[in-house]
């Protein structure tokens, strides 16, 4: 079976660190489309009356009423819903916020937890508070603190055991060493021919399989990931833009600037200025 290719382009608006969306569907409503996807943001989902499965990379977690799940940034995930009523609160977060404001280590991988009644009530209060603040002032620094409280609470709850998905593993396992190297050192991506050799595939077949699984070519994925990392360095460090250009693997600041404008619709300097002075 070929995985439906998709790279969901979720990006938070400039200067906004979290978005809150509430979803409610009746029992007769068709379930949301199944979609293997990834995006820049991290996701926290607080489920109400909902059943199904949350799949992330090669793991599958049961979704039961009242559970909560966490999908880290840039991890491939999907939600499979059973028939019946569905409601949840989706919190999309800049992943760098989690490392700044959470007083406990945030797990690197996905997880699912089943809070007890008291904790569910606390999480509901925090989610309502976050939604109110984000609606009234999306740039309020209080948002970061509330997200930190939610994440801190989730990390205190024992995690639900996941099941391995051998089928997913065979589809992604070939590419994971290459993607992990890219995450560890975005300035030195593996050339296509070497990536194919690591995957034990010919370059032509590697390119076809990568595009079939991820929905874009290998070089396009590498470029998008490096620009994602660069945008975060711009937002969270005082590095010169030329330093960021070279550190993220671009041959020159001008090349970096051109590709950055293509992806974000503005220059890297405009991006940094708008973070300092939101429009």
Description:
- By secondary structure, the chain is α+β, with helices and mostly antiparallel strands.
- It is built from 11 helices and 9 strands.
- The chain has helices at residues 95-101, 117-136, 142-155, 166-172, 176-184, 192-198, 203-214, 218-236, 241-247, 253-264, 268-276; strands at residues 18-25, 42-47, 52-56, 59-63, 68-71, 77-81, 86-93, 111-113, 163-164.
- Strands 1-7-2-5-8 form a 5-stranded antiparallel beta sheet.
- Helix 2 (117-136) packs antiparallel against helix 3 (142-155) and helix 6 (192-198) crosses helix 7.
- The model is unreliable at 1-9 (pLDDT under 50).
Can I get a quick summary?
The chain has eleven helices and nine strands.
Name the structural class. Answer: alpha+beta
Please give the radius of gyration in angstroms: 20 Å
Let me know the average pLDDT.
84
User: Approximately what portion of the residues adopt beta-strand conformation?
Assistant: 15-25%
The parts where pLDDT drops under 50 for at least 5 residues are: 1-9
Series of H and E elements? EEEEEEEHEHHEHHHHHHHH
Distance between the termini: 46 Å
Number of helices, counting only DSSP H or I runs of 4 residues or more: 11
Q: Numbering strands along the chain, what is their spatial order in the largest sheet? A: 1-7-2-5-8
- Describe the global form: globular
């Amino acid at each position: 079976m070929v995985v439906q290719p998709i790279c969901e382009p979720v990006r938070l608006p400039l200067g906004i660190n979290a978005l809150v969306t509430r979803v409610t569907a009746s029992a007769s409503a068709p379930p949301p489309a199944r979609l293997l996807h990834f995006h820049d943001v991290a996701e926290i989902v607080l489920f109400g009356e909902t059943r199904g499965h949350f799949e992330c990379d090669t793991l599958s977690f049961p979704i039961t009423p009242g559970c909560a799940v966490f999908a880290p940034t840039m991890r491939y995930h999907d939600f499979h819903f059973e028939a019946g009523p569905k409601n949840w609160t989706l919190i999309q977060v800049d992943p760098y916020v989690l490392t700044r404001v959470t007083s406990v280590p945030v797990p690197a991988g996905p997880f699912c937890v089943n809070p007890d009644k008291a904790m569910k009530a606390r999480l509901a209060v925090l989610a309502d508070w976050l939604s109110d603040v984000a609606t009234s002032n999306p740039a309020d620094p209080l948002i970061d603190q509330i997200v930190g409280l939610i994440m801190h609470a989730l990390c205190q709850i024992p995690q639900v055991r996941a099941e391995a998905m051998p089928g997913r593993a065979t589809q992604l396992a070939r590419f994971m060493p290459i993607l992990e190297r890219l995450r560890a050192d975005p300035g030195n991506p593996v050339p296509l021919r070497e990536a194919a050799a690591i995957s034990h595939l010919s370059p032509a077949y590697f390119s076809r399989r990568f595009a079939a699984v991820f929905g874009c070519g290998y070089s396009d994925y590498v470029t998008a990931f490096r620009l994602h990392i660069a945008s975060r360095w711009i937002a969270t460090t005082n590095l010169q833009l030329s330093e960021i250009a070279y550190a993220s693997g671009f041959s020159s600041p001008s090349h970096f600037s051109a590709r950055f404008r293509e992806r974000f619709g503005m220059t890297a300097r405009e991006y940094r200025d708008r973070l300092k002075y939101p429009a």
